[in-house]
Amino acid sequence: MTTNQKIIGNKIRLLNLANKLKNVSEACRIMGYSRDSFYRFQELYETGGELALQEISRSKPIIKNRVEPYIEQKVVSIATDNPSLGQQRVSNELRKEGIVLSPRGVRSIWLRNDLETFKKRLKALETKVAKEGLILTESQVVAIEKAKEEKEAHGEIETAHPGYLGAQDTYYVGTIKGVGRIYQQTFIDTYSKVAFAKLYDQKNSLVAADMLNDKVLPFYQEQDVSLLRILTDRGTEYCGSQDHDFQLYLAIEDIDHTKTKTRSPQTNGICERFHRTIQNEFYAIAFRKKVYNSIEQLQIDLDLWLIEYNQNRPHSGKFCYGQTPLKTFLDTKYLADEKNLNKLHQNHFFLSSEKAPKGIEKTNNLTNLI
Q: What domain of life is recorded for the organism (predicted)?
């Protein structure tokens, strides 16, 4: 028997006892109820039966201290229009318009709308611009540039899909007796964290280009994904004159080249972190287990370790969510396809518009754009 059933039973017994004794006061004394309660129970029973005798809570609901909807909308609008403003500044801006709202009240609205941090407000602004095609104001541009600088300062890289940006770097492995100096060319897809590495006995522009030609681009071509841009430091193997081997190779493959800021190695921090991982998990162990007589021997074991790294080792990267780099690449490469389709659609719209520049023939066939 539930508690509610017990309460209803006591009330019915009170009514039955009063009817039997023909004395309401005596029945109330025996059952422990007041006369007011008896007559209330009697009225409820006569109008609604036993169900009407259920216990009704007298506690009033606590009404949330919410502001008017137009005020909340105003706070959200300020957050997206000026994401760099803090809660105190927003409170002051509202006061100029005759709206009194404390900084804590501003923050509570931010929390309800998932806008409590600068990054979230900035993301909301970018989403709004992409959706509505708005033109950014000067303050909004400053806020976005500030966010990008902070990301670079902490080693974060802006990336949108597999193939959007690859990071390449040179790592000095060490010196092997009888072999000489060994350098590793490293390449990482910054979105999926799929990594490639190849060993050389020198570091120059030719080996940097060979790394892409032998390891990286065949993989992207096999997956039917385009590599759009590469991030490197300003080393001589990546930067130079117009006839520089690496620069020429990127031009032939139509790959954009982005260089890190001078004396800012953290800008290419993804490679630095990978180098620490490969040093601790591969080289430090491999050189203690085995004596290598050639680069080719070491490359064989390195390739086996990379298979384990890409296919079996869970990664905690921003877009990996605990999955392996290769699975992340395969599961998200459709994003690159969508990006390419959007570009084709935009180009097609541009060529088909009445304002197309002279010399560009209008066409309704997308295949002619490729």
A: Bacteria
Task: Report the C-alpha gap between 24 and 38 in whole angstroms.
Answer: 8
Judge if 301 and 343 occupy the same domain: no
- Rounded to 5 degrees, φ, ψ at 169 are -155, 165
In-domain check, residue 348:
yes
Q: What DSSP assignment string belongs to 193-232?
A: --EEEEEESS-SHHHHHHHIIIIIHHHHHHTT----EEEE
Same domain, 327 and 338: no
Q: What is the pLDDT of residues 6-46, one digit of tens each?
A: 778 888 888 888 888 889 888 888 888 888 888 888 888 88
Judged by phi (left if over 0) then psi (alpha if -120 to 50, else beta), residue 327 lies in alpha
The half-sphere exposure of 343 on its side-chain side, counting CA atoms within 13 A, is 8
Q: Starting from the edge strand earliest in sequence, which strands make up the sheet with 256-259, in order? A: 195-200, 180-189, 166-176, 229-232, 256-259
Question: Does residue 235 contact residue 262 with C-beta atoms inside 8 Å?
Answer: no
The enclosing domain of 296 has a CATH number of 3.30.420.10
Residue 34 in domain: yes
Residues 63-91, mean pLDDT to the nearest whole number: 85
For residue 27, give its domain range.
3-53
Quote the pTM value: 0.56
Q: Are residues 175 and 297 in the same domain?
A: yes
What the block records as the tokens of 268 is: 């290419």
For the beta carbon of residue 210, count every other beta carbon within 10 angstroms: 17
Within a domain: 233:
yes
- The separation between CA 328 and the C-alpha centre of its own chain, rounded to angstroms, equals 14
